[in-house]
Write a structure and sequence with these properties.
Elements (H helix, E strand, L loop, with lengths): L17 H51 L2 H20 L2 H20 L4 E3 L6 H6 L9 E12 L2 E18 L2 E18 L7 E6 L1 H6 L1 H7 L8 E3 L4 H6 E5 L2 H7 L2 H14 L3 E6 L2 E7 L16 H20 L11
Antiparallel strand pairs: 1-2, 2-3, 3-4, 4-9, 5-7, 5-8, 6-7, 8-9
Helix pairs in contact: 1-2, 1-3, 1-10, 3-10
């Protein structure tokens, strides 16, 4: 995640090595993990008990339904079984989650870079998500957690997990049904950019061309944001992965320099995840899709495992590494 550039920049801790992480794991985390492991096993036993109780309620309802021939008994039994299993399983899990984030994630964030602050209950606001304009649909429901903020070299950063959804309703003879659809779920990263610009430029995954080939190129012209124009750039590898829309064709080419397009392409190939970027108001937004919650404790896997901790470290380092990967600390352009 280190830049190969020799451009001078403000000193900051280098990305930690695997050996440093192992030493930190053994000296700082192992004792806390031993305590958390006991708590995890207790939560797991409670969850298993909840499932067992729920299964018992379901089987009793099934037998009673077979004996009486009354279907509502089975339906009611299923509902009660689900409620019981969920209620019992949740006992203690909230405390376990809180303890894990305080004892593992917060120290790991500080280990990656001491300048960073971590708040497990906060997240990047919905207004900021909308301002990034990476997605055409505004959320009807928005949530998140695990906010990290700080200054990496010259660059102010903030990132968190977010989940943005929109809803649709269908009307049938049985009534109205509401359905929720994911707009974006994953890591949302926000930072100062090293160039000044007036308009908005959006870089989106080129799903149309990937799925439809040349027909997809024509669909790109059907702009989903009316005030943005399709921008064709002279980087074939970049254009295979992304499609660009901007309020200003010239500014888009100024923002997306040849070197930045190369860096974005390398970053996308390294992560192997769909990602979107936007450049709005001298800020860069990066949205990296992730189906799983990145910083949640694992219930069905032991915590006494270096590889498990390394996974959490890699997720934090992925976000922090965006500053290096996109060379955001370089300040050779003046900003008005």
């Amino acid at each position: 995640m280190r830049s190969a550039d020799s451009t001078p920049r403000l000193e900051r801790p280098e990305m930690r090595s695997l050996d440093e992480l192992r030493t930190f794991y053994e000296s700082q985390l192992s004792a806390e993990l031993a305590v958390l492991e006991k708590q995890r096993k207790k939560c797991l036993n409670t969850a298993v008990m909840g499932i067992a109780v729920g299964a018992g309620v379901f089987l009793f309802s099934l037998l009673l339904t077979l004996a009486t021939g009354i279907p509502p008994i089975l339906i009611g039994g299923v509902i009660v079984a689900v409620i019981v299993a969920a209620a019992v399983s949740s006992i203690g899990s909230r405390d376990y989650k809180h303890s894990f984030k305080a004892s593992v994630i917060r120290p790991l964030v500080r280990f990656v870079d001491p300048s960073l602050a971590y708040n497990p209950d906060a997240f990047i606001p919905e207004e900021t998500f909308i301002r990034g304009r990476m997605f055409a649909i505004k959320p009807d429901r928005y949530s998140g957690d695990d906010l990290v903020t700080g200054r990496l070299g010259l660059t102010e950063v903030a990132f968190s997990e977010v989940h943005a959804e929109y809803k649709t309703t269908t009307h049938t003879k049985h009534g109205t049904q509401t359905h929720w659809h994911t707009i974006f779920k994953g890591l949302l990263f926000l930072a100062d950019f090293n160039k000044d610009f007036r308009g908005t430029t959006v870089v989106s995954p080129d799903l149309a061309e990937r799925l439809l080939g040349k027909w997809g190129q024509k669909l790109q012209g059907l702009n989903f944001l009316s005030d943005l124009q399709l921008v064709k750039l002279e980087d074939p590898e970049f254009e295979k992965l992304f499609v660009v829309h901007s309020q200003d064709q010239i500014e888009a080419r100024y923002v997306l320099s040849t070197s930045l397009m190369e860096r974005i392409t390398r970053f996308r190939n390294k992560t192997q995840k769909d990602m979107s970027l936007s450049f709005v108001g001298s800020k860069v937004f990066v949205a990296i899709a992730h189906s799983e919650d990145m910083f949640e404790p694992r219930l069905f896997h032991t915590l006494i495992d270096f590889d498990t901790i390394r996974d959490y470290f890699d997720d934090i380092a992925l976000a922090v590494g965006i500053v290096e990967d996109l060379n955001l600390n370089t300040r050779i352009w003046s900003k008005s």
